[in-house]
């Protein structure tokens, strides 16, 4: 691979040959149209056409994954077999330059609509370093987040404000007070709680930071709080500034609500880590032969400047398998060009008992482990909930089973009884 | 429906009852988490919980549409039936206020990941008018675009610069010169041609507008040219200004590359129509039980401020059926709150012969009909290609078959021979 190309790998399914489908994809996404047109010279094609790098045949499928495919004329629809394979295309870098929005139009644009395929999923990308030089990537990442929270040698433990939506400023203040004294490292707003009229972000920031600072004065530990600043583009900077001026040290955005372009815009201005929530992502990835893989998504998020990215956790309440979660964590922790890794955020149905399996399968402590109900609904309250999470990780890191560790750790024992 | 709620309708598929799945969706997207937490009071639920408005049972499915569903414990996986239905939920408007980014997190967020469903697609939304008051919607729409192009009582005829990518400024200049003298109403950049290093937008704008103005001086007709200004957020305004300062009268963006938030940001500043290209949209909609319908998408685009939106055309080269294209055109032409309709853009594999079926099925002339190859690859050249498109529409509007009309219209006859 040269510095003058972008490579994109797709999982495709087609009633045609893989070669033919790949040729159509390369044409559609670069110099071709449905008929040859004047000006489509050999020189132009040599300079600007996308090219097939490799094709890897996989097992074929008896049924099509997606509707709207066209059957080859020779066989007819009754007789169609659906070839599956991995296709890597090379796009000339100078077709778009280091622009994420224009890159997307090329590597993930109209090709999803081609009727030559009955399935197409973008599963990996390789980009020239010029993209990272332009966008700059995570400003804080794992190391910066550890520095700001002063947590080392174990995962960060965090929670989500619950109920997700509806707490008044007074109720929120009380909850944050308890959390800020609980020994927790990190708190975040729910993605459903942006800037609602009944509890505007501005008031929330003042109340929350007041509680956090007062607790920090007492305990010496300043909790990181990710304020959900999701909003229109011109609100992003203003909302960020409200947080920073109040002494806050993290902002959260719904990445897919503001777009990668919105994240990149915020990144240029940001003085604190950007906590990336991936809601809406299921629509882009749940079908295995459509959309894109998390491997690609986290690379794009990383380039745009996200510091923390949600990956779900093991045994989550969503559709995602443990194997997929583990792969996602590995993706976030794999450098693209150097020190540009993301802090993976485990969440969804998490509690103390998930620590052991997480550590065994992920083999890392570079995690932000969020438990909402798993902390808030602990039978002995929030501080016990946080203690149970810490104990779960202590057990995991010591290689002791939680059943064994719970014998001398009451909070863990209670968590096992309630959530186990 | 009150002014204090947002309604969202989903097509869902579930191994559980529709009622149960709908309850889980409503909980996940408002006040619930996986266990009850302190603070989730009756008062809070009454004020902030999403509620089920209606459930319409449809025919059940023998197989699940998506992986990762959880089977009800009573039946076990072998015995599962997949209920399908349309579910309408009501979300309290004050949970997010008139904010598109925060609306999306609520109505189209984590619910795609729920394992209680084996299929979920957002198929319609109804929003309080406060959203339109905030975002303002299409600034030009159909009427404004007709005014700027001086085209009435017939569809606008347009083309896409082809080859999509790779023309030098000199080659582009020559092509635009010919197009600007051809009688065409509208030209657009390809979505693959943004701001590439070898032909930067700035130079392209100067060259193109020079040709267009000079042609207009001669012919009295100033072609509308949609410059692809897709780029990072802080480039959008600058790129827009480059176009307007050069006398340009339209800008194009890849909506999904800059996000709805990016479009709304541009809309606040825009002095010319925003031509919305929907590349990447296939990933969001091609599977019939995932993502969202075009009905929803065009409402969101419209709110954000798009003036023209691509719908594909009949007999297109993509996966989309004619029925779906016709529905999309109707969606664009259906007012939400008043004069807020979008100009539908028919494209993909279009030529003169498609006019008749388009008019018969769509029953409107409020269309922007784009033909790339269908104009550029006409045997007698570009001017003949444009004439053939006009003749195709003349025949359609007169109720004459194109075969009949072609007897006295040479350009149409040649088009039929080449593309028919």
Automatic annotation (TrEMBL), chains A, B:
Instruction: Fetch the PROSITE patterns from UniProt.
Output: RUBISCO_LARGE
Q: Which Gene3D superfamilies match?
A: Ribulose bisphosphate carboxylase, large subunit, C-terminal domain, RuBisCO large subunit, N-terminal domain
Cofactors needed by this protein, per the record, are:
Mg(2+)
- What's an example Gene Ontology biological process for this entry? carbon fixation
Identify the residues that the record assigns to the Ribulose bisphosphate carboxylase large subunit ferrodoxin-like N-terminal domain, covering every copy: 14-131
Residue limits of the Ribulose bisphosphate carboxylase large subunit C-terminal domain?
Answer: 141-419
Pfam families associated with the record? RuBisCO_large, RuBisCO_large_N
What are the transmembrane regions?
A: none
The terms under GO molecular function for this entry are: magnesium ion binding; ribulose-bisphosphate carboxylase activity
Q: Which keywords belong to this entry?
A: Magnesium, Metal-binding
Q: Which family does it belong to?
A: Belongs to the RuBisCO large chain family.
Q: What is this protein called?
A: Ribulose-bisphosphate carboxylase
Give the organism, scientific name: Pullulanibacillus camelliae
């Amino acid at each position: 691979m040269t510095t003058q190309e972008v490579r994109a790998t797709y999982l495709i399914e087609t009633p045609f040959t893989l070669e033919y489908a790949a040729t159509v994809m390369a044409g559609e996404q670069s110099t071709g149209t449905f008929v040859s047109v004047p000006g489509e010279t050999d020189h132009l094609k040599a300079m600007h056409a996308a090219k097939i790098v490799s094709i890897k045949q996989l097992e074929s499928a008896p049924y099509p994954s997606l509707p709207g495919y066209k059957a080859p004329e020779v066989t007819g629809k009754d007789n169609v077999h659906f070839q599956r394979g991995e296709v890597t295309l090379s796009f000339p870098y100078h077709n778009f330059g280091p622009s994420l929005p224009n890159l997307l139009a090329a590597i993930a644009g109209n090709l999803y609509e081609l009727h030559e395929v009955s399935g197409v999923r973008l599963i990996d990308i390789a980009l020239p370093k010029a993209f990272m030089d332009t966008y700059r990537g995570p400003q804080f990442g794992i190391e910066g987040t550890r520095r700001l929270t002063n947590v080392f040698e174990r995962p960060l433990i965090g929670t989500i404000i619950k109920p997700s939506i509806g707490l008044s400023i007074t109720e929120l203040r009380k909850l944050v007070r308890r959390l800020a004294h609980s020994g927790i490292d990190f708190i975040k707003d729910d993605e459903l709680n942006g800037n609602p009229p009944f509890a505007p972000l501005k008031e929330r920031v003042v109340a929350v930071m007041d509680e956090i600072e007062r607790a920090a004065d007492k305990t010496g530990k300043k909790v990181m709080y990710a304020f959900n600043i999701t909003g229109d583009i011109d609100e992003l900077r203003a909302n960020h500034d409200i947080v920073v001026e109040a002494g806050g040290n993290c902002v959260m955005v719904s990445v897919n609500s503001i777009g990668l372009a919105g994240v990149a815009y915020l990144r240029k201005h940001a003085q604190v880590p950007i906590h990336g929530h991936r809601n809406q992502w299921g629509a882009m990835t749940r079908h295995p032969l459509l959309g894109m893989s998390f491997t690609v998504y986290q690379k794009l998020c990383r380039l745009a400047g996200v510091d923390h990215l949600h990956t779900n956790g093991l045994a989550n309440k969503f559709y995602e398998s443990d194997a997929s979660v583990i792969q996602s964590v590995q993706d976030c922790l794999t450098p693209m060009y150097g020190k540009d890794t993301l802090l993976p955020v485990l969440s969804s149905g998490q509690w103390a008992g998930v620590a052991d399996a997480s550590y065994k399968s992920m083999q890392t402590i570079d995690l932000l482990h969020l438990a909402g109900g798993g902390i808030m609904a602990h039978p002995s309250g929030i501080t016990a909930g946080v203690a149970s999470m810490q104990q779960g990780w202590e057990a995991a890191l010591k290689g002791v089973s939680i059943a064994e560790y719970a014998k001398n750790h009451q909070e863990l024992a209670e968590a096992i009884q309630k959530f186990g």
